[in-house]
Amino acid sequence: MDIDALRSFLAFVETGSFTRAAKQVNRTQSAISMQMKKLEQDLNKSLFQKQGRLLNLSYDGQIFARYAKQLLQLHDETLAQMNAVKPSTLLRLGCPDDYAESVLPKVVQLLHQQWPNLDLQITCTPSNRVKIMIDSGHLDLAIITRSSDSEEGYLLESTQGVWVYNPKCDAHNKQPLPIAIFQRDCRFHQAAIEGLHKLNREFTIIACSGSASAQRGIVRNGFAIGAMSVLSKGSLSVLSDKSLPILPIADVVLVRANNQQNPVSDIFCANIAKCYTSNTHNAIQDNITDVSFRVDM
Prior knowledge:
By secondary structure, the protein is of the alpha/beta class. The protein folds into three domains: 3-84, Winged helix-like DNA-binding domain superfamily/Winged helix DNA-binding domain (Arc Repressor Mutant, subunit A, Orthogonal Bundle); 89-157 and 253-291, 3-Layer(aba) Sandwich (D-Maltodextrin-Binding Protein, domain 2), CATH 3.40.190.10; 159-250, Periplasmic binding protein-like II (D-Maltodextrin-Binding Protein, domain 2). It has helices spanning 3-15, 18-24, 29-43, 59-84, 104-114, 127-135, 187-198, 212-220, 266-296; strands spanning 48-51, 54-57, 89-95, 118-124, 141-146, 154-165, 177-182, 203-209, 225-229, 237-238, 249-256. The strands form two sheets. Strands 3, 4, 5, 6, 7, 8, 9, 10 and 11 form a nine-stranded mixed β-sheet that branches. The longest helix has 31 residues, at 266-296. It is elongated, with a radius of gyration of 33 Å. The termini are far apart. The model is unreliable at 284-297 (pLDDT under 50).
């Protein structure tokens, strides 16, 4: 169906004559007449009827007028929307759920500040899987915990490992001590087990998981205490117990896949990390100021 013919038809509906409709759409009266005949052929309906010397809409014409307005409005809105859409940048970001509620939102905000029209696809999966996907080129960018002897990636922040528990339950008082820990490739896994052995503290492993959410759920329900970073603990309480080993500090970094299709450069990653650390530092300073102000009051 011809859109220009719909405009001419609606011009007739508005003005009541082919002559005035022709002036409104900047066409000749004969051109308008031909468009209306073609519309009637397409619809196999008579859209007009004569009443004396006047030409009015037929019953079918009145029905068609309602739909013609909707069709023309949808057509114009579609064109306007498509012309307004700018090419987007596809970026595939990976992040373990350890940092999905703490680090990830800040990185997402910074990415959108750099790319206003960003098509961001986020994959949340265990750290070892994130690293595999980065190495294989299935991700462009990733948030990971780097090894203690590694300088890979761009530092976002360092986070202290802590023991966490539910103070309303007695898992921390049980013998042997029930613990829920990450998988073997996690720094806190090794530090927790080796530390407990050195302190001759009896323990039993309730579960090893690659998911921070799973570990938090186990701890929250009182089945065990957990070993994770401050950034991963969520609403769980930190267990201060001198009979437990001190857990290490972990570096959270931003890494990029080394392939030609990657829209992210090393310079871009460095800038994101710099902005992240600057914002985090400012937030800490603001919190210190707020606390000082409350104390003075």
